[in-house]
Design a protein that fits this description.
The structure is a homodimer. By secondary structure, the first copy, chain A, is of the alpha/beta class. The first copy, chain A, folds into two domains: about 120 residues, Aspartate Aminotransferase, domain 1 (Alpha-Beta Complex), CATH 3.90.1150; about 250 residues, Aspartate Aminotransferase, domain 2. Helix content of chain A is about 40%, strand content about 15%. The first copy, chain A, has eleven helices and 13 strands. In chain A, the strands form three sheets. Chain A has a seven-stranded mixed beta sheet, sandwiched between helices. A four-stranded antiparallel beta sheet of chain A has the order 9-10-13-12, covered by helices on one side. A two-stranded parallel ribbon of chain A has the order 1-11. The first copy, chain A, is globular. Chain A starts with 6 loop residues before the first strand and ends with a helix.
C-alpha cells in the first residue's frame, strides 16, 4: 500500500497524518534527551522535566484551563474523573445519548458497585438539538450529582450544547460535577471552562499530537480522588499519593516522547489558529455531507450543528461491507458502533450494525470528499 | 549539552539510548501507518492491529508467558494486578523490603479501603539474601493471600529469589496470588513462570523499548478484574468489559507508536540473545562496584547477587550534591529514595536522603565506569 494514495477519513479514531513537526520532535527528543523526567542534577532528567512543564503551560493556554493533569489516554482520564468522584448510592448522573463506552462503562461499573442512577438527556432525532426546557424540568425534579457529556458525538459529529447544559446543571445543584468528554473537539471548540469541572482531552485526536498523552483540564477547584497509585518522584517517603498538585494523577514515568510530540502539536495549533482550523473543518463537513447526500441510496445523519464527523448508511449494504469495499480502494473510513452503543439505540442504527463513519481533519481536503463520492458510486 | 559526551548511568529509570532500530521503527511506523488499531477493512487499522498482534506474540516468546496484556505503564499494570485481585479484610500480603511505591501505594490504599495486612519478608542486611527458612515458618502461621516482590531491587540491584519465594507461597496456599514486579529485569532474568500469576514488565526499561507500553505477563490461569473501563472495539453493545481475553485490560486506543518501538526492541533483544545481555550487565556491575569501592569515603551496597544497579553514598556529602556535581560533569546518575522508601528504612539510608544510584545498561561500557570513578575522585 502506498500511503501517497491513501485517503484517510478516520480522523475521529486518531488524526492522521500529524504535522511534520510532531514526528520530528518525537524522534529528535527521544534520540537526544530520552531520559526519565525527574528533579535534581541529572541533565537528561532535568531536560525532560522542563519539557513536561512547558507542555503543561501550553495546554493550559490552549484549553483556557487553570490546571491540567496528564494521563496516558482519554479513557484513563475519564475513569479518573468518574471513578474518583466519590459518587454514592442513588446519585443521579445525566449523560447524552451520544456517550462513548469510555464514559458508559465506568458508569455501568458504578451503577453495580455503588448504586448510582444513569439517565439519558432528551435530544431531537431530526435536528440532534437538546430539549433544554425538558432538561431544566428534569434537573429540578432530580438534581444532577454529575453531568457527563461529549463536546461532539464521535458517531454523528453532533455538537452538544455544553455551555447551556453545564449552566443548567450548576443552577440545579451548585455542587454538581460537570465532566466533558472532549476527545473529538478539545481545543477546537472552547466551552466556558468556569462551569466545567474537568474537560477530558486526547492528545492524539483533536490536538494533533501522538498516542500516549491525554488528560484532564480542570476548570474549577474540584478534584477527583486518584484511582491508581505509584511513584510520583515527590514525597516518596509517604505511602499516600501527594494530597495536592497534579502529580497525584500522574503516578509512574511520564511518557516524555509523547509529551515532546504534544509540545510540537501545540505550537503548530497555535500557529494555525483556532478559527482557521474550525473553518477548514466546517467546509469539509459540508463537502462530505453534500457528497454523501447526492447518493440516492444513502441515509446521511445531519445534526444542525455538526463538526468533522459524518455517519451514513447505504440501503441494502452493511456498514462493514462498505468499509471493506472502500478499504480496497485505499480509502480509510470506519464501520460499526464506534464504541458508542447508546448512540445507535437512540438513532435506530443498532440492528443494522451501526453506521459508516467518515471523519475529516486538518489534512483532509474537499478533493478527498469528492473521491469518496466517486468510490461510493462504484459500490452502490 | 552535547550528548556525544554524556555518560548515562540512569538505566534503572529508563534504558537510554535505545537500539537504533527502535527509533526508526517508531518514526517510520507513525509516519506511514499511524492509524488507530481496529478490526475491519480500514487499511491502516488493519496494519496497526497486526502490529499489536505480532508484538504480543514476540513478548509471549521472550517472557515465556502464555498470555500478555498491554498497559500504558508498569505502574498501571501493577495497579491492575493488585487492585483487581479482589483482596479482602485480613488478607495477608507479603512484600520484600525493596518494593517500589508502585507496589506499596496501591497496597496502602487497600489497607485503608478493605483492611488487608502488609508484611515485609526478612532479608539479611549484609548479603541481601532472603531468610527462606523463616519465610517458610511465617507462611505456615499466616499463609499469604498474595506475594508481591520485585525481581531486582531498583535501589540496590539485589536479585531476589523469585523462584524460591513463589514456590513457598504456592506451597503454603495453593490459591496465593504471586505477582512479580519485573520493571528492572523482565526478559533479562527468567523466573519459573508456571508459579507466577503475573509478571509486570516495563517496555522502556529492561526491554529496551519506548515509554508508553508495559503490561502483565500471565504465567497461570489467574486473571484480575479490570480496574478501568472503556472502549475495546469488541462487544461494543455491552456496557460490561469483555469477560474473556486480554482486551478487558486494554480499554482505549492502543499506543501503536510505542508498540512499534517495542516490536523493534524485541527483535533486537532476540538478536543479542539473553545470555549476551546478562553477561554484559554482570561485567558492568562488577566494574561499577570495583570503581566505587576503591574510593575510601564511599559506602557501596553490594548484594551477593546484584544486577546492573549499584547504590552508594559518600561520607559527608549528600546524595543530591553528588548527583548535581556529576550532572555538571555530564554524568547522569540518580540521587534520592528512588520511589522505594522502605528500602531505605531497611538499609538505614532514609535520614541521609537515600543513596546515589548508578545503573548500567547494554550501551554502558566499563570505560564509563572508569570515568565515573575519576569524576567522583574530583568530588571527594
Amino acid at each position: 500500500m502506498s500511503n501517497a494514495e491513501l485517503i484517510y477519513l478516520d480522523n475521529a479514531a486518531t488524526t492522521f497524518p500529524k504535522p511534520e513537526s510532531v514526528y520530528q520532535a518525537m524522534d529528535q527528543f527521544y534520540r537526544s534527551y530520552g531520559g526519565n523526567a525527574g528533579r535534581g542534577g541529572n541533565p537528561l532528567a532535568r531536560k525532560a522535566a522542563s519539557l513536561v512543564h512547558e507542555t503543561r503551560e501550553l495546554l493550559k493556554l490552549w484549553l483556557s484551563a487553570p490546571e491540567v493533569a496528564f494521563s496516558p489516554s482519554a479513557t484513563l482520564a475519564l475513569n479518573t474523573a468518574i471513578l474518583g468522584a466519590d459518587l454514592g448510592m442513588g446519585d443521579v448522573v445525566y449523560v447524552s445519548p451520544f456517550e462513548h463506552n469510555s464514559v458508559l462503562r465506568p458508569l455501568a461499573h458504578l451503577r453495580k458497585a455503588v448504586g448510582i442512577e444513569v439517565r439519558v438527556l432528551p435530544f431531537d432525532k431530526q435536528t440532534f438539538a437538546c430539549a433544554l426546557d425538558d432538561v431544566r424540568k428534569q434537573f429540578r425534579i432530580d438534581p444532577p450529582a454529575m453531568l457527563c457529556i461529549s463536546q461532539v458525538s464521535n458517531v454523528f459529529g453532533a455538537v452538544l450544547p455544553v455551555d447551556e447544559l453545564s449552566l443548567l446543571a450548576k443552577q440545579a445543584n451548585a455542587r454538581a460535577i460537570v465532566l466533558v468528554d472532549g476527545a473529538q473537539a478539545a481545543g477546537l471548540l472552547l466551552p466556558t471552562m468556569e462551569r466545567i469541572d474537568a474537560l477530558i482531552f486526547s492528545g492524539h485526536k483533536s490536538l494533533y499530537g501522538p498516542f500516549g498523552i491525554a488528560g484532564l483540564a480542570f476548570g474549577t477547584r474540584w478534584r477527583p480522588q486518584p484511582i491508581f497509585f505509584g511513584g510520583t518522584g515527590t514525597q516518596s517517603d509517604s505511602l499516600d499519593m501527594p494530597a495536592q498538585g497534579m502529580g497525584r494523577y500522574e503516578a509512574g514515568s511520564q511518557n516524555i516522547v509523547a509529551v515532546a510530540g504534544l509540545h510540537a502539536a501545540l505550537l503548530w495549533l497555535h500557529e494555525q489558529g483556532r478559527e482557521h482550523l474550525q473553518s477548514h473543518l466546517n467546509s469539509l463537513t459540508h463537502a462530505l455531507v453534500s457528497a454523501l447526500q447526492s447518493i440516492p441510496q444513502a441515509t446521511v445523519y445531519t445534526p444542525q450543528q455538526q463538526s468533522g464527523i459524518v455517519s451514513f448508511t447505504l440501503e441494502g449494504i452493511s456498514p462493514q461491507a462498505i468499509e471493506t469495499a472502500l478499504g480496497a480502494k485505499n480509502i480509510a473510513v470506519r464501520a460499526g458502533l464506534h464504541c458508542a452503543p447508546w448512540s445507535h439505540e437512540w438513532a435506530g442504527t443498532l440492528e443494522q450494525g451501526g453506521t459508516v463513519r467518515v471523519s475529516g481533519g486538518w489534512f483532509s481536503s474537499e478533493k478527498e470528499a469528492a473521491h469518496l463520492f466517486d468510490s461510493l458510486k462504484a459500490v452502490v
